[in-house]
Amino acid sequence: MKKLVVLSGAGISAESGIKTFRDSDGLWENYRIEDVATPEAWLRNPELVLDFYNQRRKQALTAEPNEAHRILADLQEHFDVQIITQNVDNLHERAGSKKVLHLHGELFKVRSTRNPELIYELDGWELKTGDLCEAGSQLRPHIVWFGEEVPAMMEAIPMCEEADIFVVVGTSLQVYPAAGLVDYVFSSVPVFVIDPQSPKVSRRKNVTFIQETASLGMQMLRSQLIQ
Prior knowledge:
It is a single chain. Helices cover about 30% and strands about 20% of the residues. The chain has about 230 residues and is α/β, with parallel strands linked by helices. Strand 2 (about 25-30) and strand 3 (about 30) form a beta hairpin. The longest helix is centred in the first third of the chain and has 17 residues, at about 45-60.
């Protein structure tokens, strides 16, 4: 069974109603990124950061997987599908995808501010000041904030090197280091890029661009992959 590796981004979740900060001049739900999604913001105003992510969880709970998510799950019948997502929601999993690596963390998980290895599933949507880990320190969102390292890259790179087919869907390929993952895909491997804007893919020749939204583009790709 061929290995199909997928790099997904905010565009796939946008069709489910989850907004991204790139939708409105650097604002994310009317907040500046610097105020809610950086280590400095956490140190400056943890209550604001906690409230912001509480609201994001409430929003995510009302969202449903869309056709693009469902097609990726269905492709597991034909391929060994590995999804590498920049998204922090759980829509891929809810659609039925079994192998999902979250590069930028997970919205419904929290972790210790003292020991980043202490990670917990959050029961519900609310994380409050005074919610502590087993080591006695405040819990924070299990999210990779701007300015923080992306430890999951070490898992993602070998996945890309093993790809027989590589798909980019719903990402502008502008956020690094995630955007650099395509450079680890062997030159002989076909790459499909699904995005209305056709983002640039550096130094590759065998790239097929599908200039459509995620759902329509995935329908077209499925027809090409399954004859």
